[in-house]
Amino acid sequence: MTQSALHPTPPFLIEAARSRSGDDPIFALNAEAQRRAKAGEAVVNATLGALMDDQGRLAVMKSVFEAFAQVDPQRAAGYAPIAGERGFLDAVVGDLFGASELARASIAAATPGGTGALHHAIVNFLEPGQALLAPEYYWGPYKTLADHTRRKVETFRMFDAARRFDSAAFERALDGQVRTQGRALVLLNTPCNNPTGYSLDAAEWSEVTRIVRAAARRAPVALLVDHAYAKFGGPGAERWVEHAAQIVGEALLLVAWTASKSFTQYGARVGALVAVHPDPAERKRLDNALAFSCRGTWSNCNHAGQLAIGKLLTDASLRARADAERDALRKLLDERVAAFNTAAHAARLDYPRYEGGFFVSVFAPRPDEAAAHMRASGVFVVPIPGALRVALCSTPARDVPRLVQALSAALSATSN
Q: What is the pLDDT of residues 209-218, one digit of tens each?
């Protein structure tokens, strides 16, 4: 039976869902680049955020698959505990904080990758209608997650005139949120920010901790470190922990941990949200809240993945092999970073400090036009507000000169 054209069926989707796009623009650009490459065109595809080898194949770590092969099928086939496998959660906390006081003050919940960790932070530390705070250059799905959970995103200027982290803009924005919302959730993707590749240095971290501690004396403030790319940071990148530790006891420290990048396991969807607080009673409340969110969304996570990654983190032999394989991949990426910095400086491209990570962003006044200009010559990057995001994780060093040449030509052609 059909509804009469004179009496059209009311929309089934709620109003907020009717105008949503089902396409991710990055995946759409990647698909176009792949189609043109398969047709025989010499394409440089610097769009998708996955680490590829110089032959264009997904970089994988053999030790990870060995760990999966060693998982007991009887355990893997069963449901994981709602909040996650205890051995896995303890291993994640140990990976972040070792046996320090921070580790003893931590609780964690398993999530499907870092995205799940971000979801849990947004729904548990912000009321509906409130906004998370992020730098103006942030991973696009932050907004998707906020919109989907009836929250918002507010941003602050990320770089000052010297192309350093704009701590004054951050302080103004955080003070504003404390006044208007009575609480704040700050998302900082560092080391190796996506999309800029920027990592806070010691002086910048010192300013961040000062600002967060001052705000936390007036309202509840949670600082979430999005740890996704941290294992690919430059020298000293791991020292963020020493700085972030200074807020514990005044603000809430959160870490979104994921195996996607550090173990090249994008498909396994293994991650965790870690929360650090010195008060055992507050930790229990946090533990309960995160477990409730697990049950209310995905119920429980990939059991085989938790068991395998937990073993990789705790078995000395497997971990040593995984670390060595990751070091080789980091060396591959570092060669691309060095090649880009050399060529980009020579071409006088305007971009922030870039020492490691999957991405770098080149500032552009008209990014959509510049990206289209580059696509016409077979070079694919992702336009974002104010810049062009370049995925060096998927770009061999031999292609970097052509990539930089295309960036320079596109920026010159679209600067007026």
A: 999 999 999 9
Domain with residue 237: its CATH number is: 3.40.640.10
Q: Is the CB of residue 240 less than 8 Å from the CB of residue 225?
A: yes
Of 314, 333, 367, the one marking the end of a domain is 314
The DSSP code sequence of 55-88 is: TSPBP--HHHHHHHHTS-HHHHTSPPPTT--HHH
Residues 188 and 141 in one domain: yes
Q: What is the mean pLDDT of residues 102-129?
A: 98
DSSP letter string, 196-251: T-----HHHHHHHHHHHHHHHTTS-EEEEEE-TTGGG--TTGGGHHHHHGGGBTTB
pLDDT in tens, 286-306: 999 999 999 999 999 999 999
Q: Looking at the domain assignment, is residue 11 inside a domain?
A: no
Q: Cis check for the bond before 385: say yes or no (omega within 30 of 0).
A: no
pLDDT over 90 at 282, yes or no: yes
